[in-house]
Amino acid sequence: MTCLSALCVCLLSFAALAAQEAKKPNFVLVLADDLGYGDLGCYGHPVIKTPYLDAFAKTGLKLNQCYSASAVCSPSRSALLTGRTPYRNGVFTWIPENSPIHLRTSEITLVSLLRRLGYATCHVGKWHLNGMFNSPKQPQPSDHGYDWWLATQNNAGPSHKDPKNFVRNGKAVGETEGFSSHLVVDEAIGWLKTERDKSKPFMLSVWFHEPHLPIESDPEYQKLYPDLMKSDPDKAQHHGNVTQLDAAFGKLLRTLTELGLDENTVIVFTSDNGPEGNGTTGRTRGSTGGLRGRKRNVYEGGIRVPGLMRIPGKTKPGSTSEEPVVGSDVFTTFAALAGAEIPKDRPIDGANFLPILEGKAIDRKIPLYWRCSLAGKFQICMRQGDYTLLATPDLKEFELYHLKTDLQQSEDLKGKEPKRFESMRQTLVALNAEIEAEGPRWWKDIPEKKKK
What we know:
Helices cover 31% and strands 16% of the residues. It is of the alpha/beta class. It is globular and about 60 Å long.
């Protein structure tokens, strides 16, 4: 072979490699805050208007059994990024300001895995994975793999209207004009258009504040509920807040299409936990879709959430799935789609959910597990198949439910199915002990606050 021929072969090899890298999918992970299982039109809400999310559901896959990894926000977020149940990764509860709890750099995040593969990375919106936000005392978004970030520690303050507490890449933004969801999406759009390295695939996290308190909605969206504006203004505020989030989501989708990115971009939309409050007073009017329990509770209403996804070339438009999927599965699935190696030096609770696209069951090595000590007698939960087992913190009292026939969890079956109960009890006790032994003892050393 001549030198010229060898050079041509080498150049062709580099070109082939570059083309292969260019085919790596982009990822957009969109997270709502306190959005209930029944809060979207496509999940059956009779009043709330969510035209963009409803249309998105028709282009992809709707998960009828989608779960957050916790019944409160910070732990759910930690599981999305690490694939590990919150009591393993240390973020076991919501994080107050100045708390020592944080997502440790010893955890390997999805973002850092993708960044090593050459991905450009960006986070916009709520962060809530440390107590000492924008301080060198604890890791910040940039320490977990994000090249660019605009975030708040927890909620938009003083409300969703004109928030003053955003920080961009370590510098306080100060006064803003507008409503949080649109400010967040505008930042994402700006990054997509002008700040990212367009030669790289990208990972974009869009974590809305809506519809978490303190709710404040643009009158443009409240006006869509004229009867409620007269009879129940707080309810109009809540419903308008969800529609506000929906409109921002629609704006993001339009931009991806305009930029020619939609055909190679995986998009997942979900929520961090069930709805706040009692659902009947104030601005906390989120719906569980008739499920038992709400936020802070490990019954279905606290952890079952909307889940929509579109994976180009893989999801069938307008399809649905009854297979249980949990937030920690995002880590494993995105890593698989990108060709990233899953860490082998630690338990990864999340499973690859791609088999559901072919109507197959997920190969789940570790049972679905939740724990939240902020409400109710039963604070630990494990699901195997269609059965869910709830336990008190001392693992001495239990409730067993069959979700396929009793979605409202009204009939405790432990007396009727003693063999199944005992088998699941032993599994839960062993799993709980293993998880507790691995994670930091913050859950014992730092008292949980009851409100967020």
